[in-house]
Design a protein that fits this description.
Blueprint (H helix, E strand, L loop, with lengths): L31 H24 L5 H16 L5 H28 L5 H32 L4 H14 L1 H12 L2 H5 L4 H43 L3 H11 L3 H11 L1 H34 L25 H14 L5 H23 L4 H33 L1
């Protein structure tokens, strides 16, 4: 008797339906001219988002990039014209290019902080930042999984609220998606479909997280400042609380500036310390997923096991762009880079992040985004409260 065929493993939620143009076009189908046009266009849009962010600090450059992508994709879905078809072809080519720009942006982000800055925070300050990150990440992931979120979507949400908001969410999403080459090298059609579905799912959680972080971070600022005044914390301790809890750099700068220059300096260093901790968090997460996937003879970015278990794919536990990020931190620590180069690298890194978010936003519809907000909104609120409460406990008791 022939055994019944086994069905592939199921997600803990139904795969999302495609909502926009196909952004999973293979690299070999993109001609050099299109690549140049798309890369230059994305970079210009990213720089424009950075400029707008300087004028309106409340809106991060990455959030602006997401809005641009969603608007462009919505325009393409309107009644077709020659121009709309041309834009659609460029959007199809933009996805892998956006992934490369995102990884470059993460690497350059490492030039913002040196090891000397972390040492200046002191052992107590570093411990507060580390404990806050670990507890917030664990609580957020646990709550998200309990609410029915996809396992990898929960990791994206946890990174966004525990580390550095939009940058952390997009970095974790990039690590979970895996390299574009690994996705395009798959020969099994079921694996390809599963890989595309998973990438879209992770992108949806990243976009939803970035939006929630931007809004809830603004709400957290007055709550934190009132609580710090009520507890009678010093300006330095208030700055440490700000840097260890608020998600976005813009929120940290806004809150620290409302207190004093001393609080702003401490808050900035604490915040950038959390940015550095993004690297080990991603490394530990991807290594754990790789070990789990190795037991099933497949890549951790795949949803379907390979057909030939004798030749399993070896997932890369440490993404190369995270290694580059750590290398940039060490390079900055050597104090050999001119200030003008560091300033330029900061602008370029922000522009690349925003440019990558344009491609992510183009793959998500407003309806899908609102649906994600409804499903994880309560988790995001609880994650924000966790990030506020955890550092307040040691500051109130031991300082």
């Amino acid at each position: 008797m022939t055994p019944a065929p086994t069905s592939p493993p199921q997600h803990d939620e139904a795969p999302p339906t495609p909502t926009t143009v196909n952004l999973a076009r293979p690299n070999h189908m993109i001609d050099p001219r299109t690549t140049s046009i798309v890369t230059l266009s994305l970079t210009i849009i990213g720089l424009a988002c950075v400029w707008l962010n300087r004028q309106l600090p409340v809106l991060s450059a990455m959030l602006l990039g997401l809005i641009v992508g969603i608007i462009v994709a919505s325009t393409v879905r309107a009644p077709k014209s020659h121009t709309a078809h041309r834009i659609e072809s460029y959007l199809s080519a933009a996805s892998p290019i956006g992934g490369h720009l995102l990884r470059l942006g993460v690497a350059l982000l490492g030039l913002k902080l040196s090891l000397a800055d972390i040492a200046g925070l002191g052992i107590f300050g570093v411990l507060v930042a580390v404990v806050t990150l670990v507890v917030t990440f664990a609580v957020t992931v646990l709550l998200a999984r309990q609410s029915g979120a996809h396992s990898q979507g929960a990791l994206v949400l946890g990174a966004g609220f525990s580390v550095c908001g939009a940058a952390a969410a997009s970095t974790m999403a990039a690590a979970l998606r895996g390299s574009d080459r690994d996705e395009h090298d798959r020969r099994d059609s079921a694996q390809k479909r599963a890989g595309i579905t998973l990438r879209r799912l992770v992108d949806e959680y990243a976009v939803a997280t970035i939006g929630l972080v931007s809004v809830l971070g603004l709400v957290m600022v007055p709550l934190l400042l009132w609580a710090a005044h009520w507890l009678g914390l010093s300006q330095a301790d208030t700055g440490l609380w700000i840097g260890a809890s608020l998600p976005e750099v813009a929120h940290v700068v806004m809150a620290g500036d409302m207190v004093s220059p001393e609080a702003l300096n401490t808050a900035t260093i604490a915040k950038l310390t959390r940015v550095v901790l993004l690297a080990p968090l991603v490394m530990v997460t991807t290594a754990g997923l790789a070990r789990r996937a190795a037991r099933h003879h497949g890549s951790f970015s795949s949803c379907v096991p390979v057909k030939n278990p004798a030749k399993p794919r070896r997932a890369l536990p440490i993404p190369p762009f995270i290694v580059a990020f750590l290398g940039c931190v060490l390079l900055r620590s050597l104090d050999v880079i001119p200030a003008a180069v560091l300033t330029g690298a900061e602008v370029i890194s922000s522009a690349f992040f925003a440019a990558a978010m344009v491609t992510v936003g183009a793959s998500i519809s407003w309806q899908t985004l609102v649906g994600r907000w409804r499903s994880i909104g309560l988790v995001a609120i609880l994650a924000s409260l966790t990030a506020l409460v955890v550092p307040a406990i040691p500051l109130a008791i031991w300082r």
